[in-house]
Design goal:
By secondary structure, this protein is mainly α. Helices cover about 70% and strands about 0% of the residues.
């Protein structure tokens, strides 16, 4: 179980990095200075965690009627995956927690 928690945390980190890159490409997020990459990464992780908390709150409202995964844009796919992973973490816990 601890291995699954570690993998979910790694996937969430990857998604947060991808969202930052996509945001930087579209001009929505400023790229951090080269010396503060670890600070920016932890800030992104906190931002994704806050987004996950919001998604969990909306999860009950958004059941059914959704698009097929293959018909979604990449940002919609990331949001859907974040929602699923947040539900998993809510049920089984986060990596590093007992």
């Amino acid at each position: 179980m601890n291995e699954m928690k570690r993998r979910v945390a790694a996937i969430l980190e990857f998604i947060s990095q991808m969202k930052a890159e996509v945001g930087a490409e579209t001009g929505n997020i400023a790229t951090p200075p080269s010396g503060s990459s670890s600070v920016a990464a932890s800030a992104m992780t906190r931002g994704v965690e806050a987004e996950l908390a919001g998604m969990l709150a909306m999860q009950g409202e958004d059941k059914g009627g959704g698009k097929d995964f293959t018909d979604m844009s990449s940002s919609e796919m990331m949001s859907d995956l974040l929602r699923s992973l947040a539900g998993w973490q809510n049920e089984f816990g986060k990596y590093g927690e007992k």
